[in-house]
Specification:
mainly alpha, single chain, globular
Length: about 425
């Protein structure tokens, strides 16, 4: 029988709610005082998430693939004096920041809802084991090249100090303050530096806000202040490189992602995700995607528009896309981002990001300064990152969990955060 408009709305709402039970947002909700235990409920009343493993959202990995592809295109174009081509493809980093803020805050808030606190030691340890092995590997290789084969790869002007700066997450300061002998092979680790500064500070601030009874409003307030800060610095004559690389002026987009996570969790608690999903509609996501594409084609990070509202709006655009992908897992955009190799490449995106620029710069003096060489060298980052992920990063990550797993019962699907850890790089 054909359903009328009301029936259609009910079907959409039920589909959204069913999809959300498989997202990180719904699985950690604390039971209400009057709720019956799941075992006492009829089968049809039990939460869908109770009978399925913890979900992973491959469409978010697909989004990471698009973001890292933009960054690679940006570096290839600049290396071959084609900076007029995709001059604003740096927006890939903006997307990374928003997505990272969203994922990390979802993990933190979910743990707080479940336990009433956040195990900071465990959080920092997880971040270390997730991110450091790949960084150590690429830093060791580049330092070895600089020390043992500087003439072959034409890196005589480079310094092994780059590796030390990268490993201590100081590259954002080295790049932003334009210190002498700037980075050559590992300069792109500035974004890791920004994120690690954020990972160090944000859990402490968030936990303090939560202990004082702060919620969505507090997180949004912090995000608003963070987004206003770069504009204020620009108006006071700050250098564009200082604004682009230093952590304090790049926390804005990370905190936009944090605000998104807080909003969705708050609406989930209030049972209002159906209405929220309509806010993050396909039309909104499509408009946001179009805005990012337009900036990638014509944008510039050295002009006033970027710091006086552009960066902030790009953060909101990225948040709109992330929110849509989470709330509309069966939508066209989510389906497209789950296509073929995109999710797998997204899992490798951290390593691809780390390796592509060093490989490009090491290949140039040996194979020639051509567009084909630059593109081929950048694409070689894919198999290198895949090998690093499967034979270095994941084995070490699993090894780091062995003592805990050996001494404790296996976690349930509700308690297991791995599906987000794979994405929260």
């Amino acid at each position: 029988m054909h359903a009328g408009p009301a029936g259609n709305r009910r079907t959409v709402t039920n589909r959204t709610r069913t999809a959300l039970t498989a997202t990180p947002l719904a699985r950690s909700r604390r039971p209400a005082a009057g709720d019956r235990p799941a075992a006492d409920r009829p089968a049809g009343d039990r939460p869908a998430s109770g009978d399925r493993p913890a979900a992973h959202l491959p469409q978010l990995d697909g989004l990471r693939t698009l973001a890292v592809a933009l960054v690679i295109a940006y570096h290839v174009a600049r290396a071959e004096d084609l900076s007029w081509l995709l001059p604003g493809a740096f927006v890939g980093v903006d997307v990374f920041f928003v997505l990272s803020g969203f994922l990390i805050t979802t993990l933190l808030l979910r743990e707080h809802r479940r336990t009433g606190s956040v195990d900071l030691r465990r959080f920092y340890t997880r971040r270390l084991w997730r991110l450091y092995p790949a960084l150590v590997l690429v830093s060791a290789v580049t330092a070895a090249v600089i020390v043992f084969a500087p003439d072959v790869f034409d890196v005589t002007a480079a310094s092994p100090l780059e590796a030390l700066v990268a490993l201590t997450y100081g590259m954002s300061w080295w790049s932003g303050l334009e210190l002498s002998g700037g980075p050559y092979l590992l300069g792109l680790t500035w974004s890791l530096s920004v994120e690690e500064h954020f990972y160090l500070l944000w859990p402490l601030l968030l936990l303090a806000l939560l202990r004082r009874g702060g919620g969505l409003g507090s997180v949004v307030g912090v995000a608003v202040l963070a987004n206003a800060w770069p504009a204020l610095l620009w108006l006071n004559g700050a250098d564009p490189d200082r604004l682009y690389y230093l952590p304090d002026s790049r926390f804005a987009q990370l905190l936009t992602g944090c605000a998104l996570a807080s909003l969705l969790l708050r609406r989930d608690e209030a049972g209002g995700l159906g209405r929220t999903s309509r806010v993050f509609s396909p039309a909104v996501a499509g408009t946001a995607l179009g805005a990012l594409a337009l900036v990638a084609l014509v944008g510039s990070r050295t002009e006033a528009w970027y710091w006086l509202g552009g960066m902030q709006l790009l953060g909101l655009a990225a948040a709109a896309i992330v929110g849509h992908l989470v709330l509309h897992p069966d939508g066209r955009l989510s389906t497209a981002l789950r296509w073929g190799p995109l999710p797998v490449l997204g899992l490798w995106s951290y390593g691809i990001y780390l390796w592509h620029l060093p490989l490009m710069r090491l290949a140039e003096p040996v194979l020639g300064d051509t567009l084909a060489v630059a593109t081929g060298a950048a694409l070689m980052a894919v198999p290198v990152a895949a090998a690093s992920y499967h034979y270095v990063e994941q084995p070490l990550l699993q090894w780091s969990r062995r003592p805990r797993l050996a001494s404790a019962p296996a976690p349930t699907a509700v308690e297991r955060p791995r599906e987000l850890e794979r994405s929260a790089a």
